[in-house]
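so the lab meeting is tmrw and i was supposed to have these ready like two days ago... anyway. pasting both below. for each one the top line is the aa sequence and the line under it is the structure tokens. i havent really looked at them closely yet so no promises
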Amino acid sequence: AAGAFAWRSGLYWHCALHQFRHRGGSLYGFLGETQGESAAAASKSLLKLVCIDAATGKEKWTEPGFRNGVAITEADGLLFVRSYQTLSLVEATPEGCRKRGEIKVHDCPIPTVNLVDMVMPVVSGGRLYIRTPDELICYTVAK
């Protein structure tokens, strides 16, 4: 019927700013709830990277340990995952995920700097661009 739901979820989807990425019938993104009422408390909340079957809404796997302040984008079949002040390159398939690399961006004197990336990261011309409320960060990501 028109307007019928394919499935519903009781999971706490962390997607107010950064939506799940779809690839090959799977959705990749974050689950979890921001804890605390202050920005400092929220910056310590932990989320899970998750793979969800797009047809059924069932979790295929979860990978815990991503700190709030997340953003996710995809290029060449890999996920670039920003987690607070860390950037990870993640190979994710419906069977599981594996970190292929990880770097710490930099130290911040204020714990809430880089808590929220207001726009999706963009990969263009072999570079990854991340815009935060306070800065623009550019990484060379081509081989």
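ok protien two:
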Amino acid sequence: LAARRLRPLRPAALIYVVEQRLEALSGIDNIDGIEIIRADAVKFISHRLMKMDAADWIVPAVPFHVAYHWIVQVLMRTGTVTTLDLYKQLHPLLINPLQGDGGAIYTSNADFRCPDDCNEPNDHCTITGKTRPAIMYRHLQNLSLPGISIRVVRSHQLAPGVGGYQVKALIEALAWAKKQPSPMLLATACQCHAVLHTFRFYSDHPNGR
């Protein structure tokens, strides 16, 4: 869906579709300028990210927090990552929070199912027609959490219902995580929704974080 919507908007771009399941690729091979790569999403990013242009875009289209899992995978090479269960502490600070698997926490301005082709207008919600309760990426970045460092990777609207972030956003988030001596909150968020994790990194070389 993301590839089909991005293709006419960016006719000169080379789009990689990274997918392990053959059944998910039906019909995608007839779209010009798309290269299919059979691979795990996080492993692909780990192998290719540093070779990609910082301005290239990543569109996460998998049911887990890609930025978090990639950063943890890299951090584990030089230390230990411990997931923190701070859901009860965060619950009153979040909008419509929901606890997911593996330490994931979801938060959303919507208490309804959004259409898959929302174009995320800046001044209102397409369903309610009203101003959003909060601009989610700003709301999370400004949370008052003493002793917890916060980083939000912003998801930008690239096409109706399609959000993504640039390679440089992941690289900068990784550099941030390596330097944090305290617990961290890492979120990926657009204007309306977010997924976040809280964790701590213990470096094997604490003086050279």
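from a quick look at the 2nd one: The mean pLDDT is 92. The radius of gyration is 18 Å. will dig more after coffe
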